[in-house]
Amino acid sequence: MDMALDATDGISDEALLVLYANGDGPAARALTLRLTPRAYAQAFRMLGDRAEAEDVTQDALMRLWKIAPNWRQGEAQVSTWLWRVVANLATDRLRKRRRVAPLEDAGEPVDDTGDAPAQMQTEARRAALAGALAKLPERQRRAVELRHFEGLGNPEIAAILGISVEAVESLTARGKRALARALEGRKAELGYTDDEV
Fold it and tell me: Do residues 124 and 190 make contact, with C-beta atoms less than 8 angstroms apart?
């Protein structure tokens, strides 16, 4: 049974995956269109490199298609499973990259919107945040990124990281406090006023 892409709007990720496992190509296309943007955004945020983020996203989706015939509905959400795979693949690449060059040497992508001074300030803010995030313990950093950049809820983050919801709350709170301390003395340099931060 093949269905039009617009007919998949009300179908869950898990149901689309099962449909794909049963030979429904449009279900796979619909699920790919639904999951790819967030998976790519997560990979790009972690890696800071578009080509590597594309590779990680593609690899994660290929792994999803391979496990589709064995997917057991109700055990996990497809999106949660995918975010965990993307995070693991990106972390593996970061570990390999550290052996070659420090992560701090990798430049941040340039935002080509806005005027030059605004771009420079935006880039300085991104670099400062990336630097402060890089100094957090890995689990704190991942919890903060998943919560504040991916917009995931604590139960989803707990499933991705394999920890309790209470541990997620603790990690994100400690991570936010550490980021605030790390960036406190840089408000003026980054163009923030006291009421903006």
Answer: yes
Read off the tokens for 120. Answer: 């420079």
DSSP string, the chain: ----GGGGTTS-HHHHHHHHHTT-HHHHHHHHHHHHHHHHHHHHHHH--HHHHHHHHHHHHHHHHHHGGG--TTSS-HHHHHHHHHHHHHHHHHHHHHHHS-GGGSPPPPP--S-HHHHHHHHHHHHHHHHHHHHS-HHHHHHHHHHHTS---HHHHHHHHTS-HHHHHHHHHHHHHHHHHHHHTTTTTTT--TTT-
The structure's pTM equals 0.58
- 136 with 178: CB under 8 angstroms? yes
- The answer to whether residues 137 and 145 touch, using CB atoms and an 8 Å cutoff, is no
Q: Which residue has the tokens 């701090």?
A: 104
**Is the pLDDT confidence value at 92 over 90?**
no
Q: Model confidence at 1, in pLDDT bands (50, 70, 90)? A: very low
Tokens 């707990």, located at residue = 158
Judge whether 155 and 83 are in contact, CB under 8 Å: no
